[in-house]
Design a protein that fits this description.
- With 83 residues, this protein is an all-alpha fold.
- It has one domain.
- The protein contains five helices and no strands.
- The relative contact order is 0.05.
- The mean pLDDT is 77.
- Its main location: mitochondrion.
- This is NADH dehydrogenase [ubiquinone] 1 beta subcomplex subunit 3.
- It is a single-pass membrane protein.
Length: 83
């Protein structure tokens, strides 16, 4: 393989871009940036809190629909005709 005339090494660039590379472990700012992706700021926690109360509202709505279907009687008798 012929060397690149610009001195740019693609393999070295790919190695440095890999988050598990030796260069990422030597990053002096990695410790200061790590808090953004842990604890309450993790991807799961951010997704979980995107719609607060959605789970409770879904269960309450399903319960109401079940109650209405089984316990509320329809006295209108649509389709019998109005005389």
């Amino acid at each position: 393989m012929t060397p690149n005339p610009t001195g740019f090494n693609v393999n070295e660039f790919k190695a440095a871009a890999n988050p598990r590379s030796i260069w990422a472990k030597r990053d002096p700012w990695a410790r200061y940036e790590a808090w953004r992706y842990t604890g309450p700021f993790s991807r799961f926690q951010r997704f979980k809190n995107i719609f607060p109360g959605f789970g409770i509202a879904s269960v309450a709505f399903a319960g109401y629909c079940a109650y209405e279907y089984f316990f509320i009687k329809d006295d209108h008798h649509h389709g019998d005709g109005h005389h």
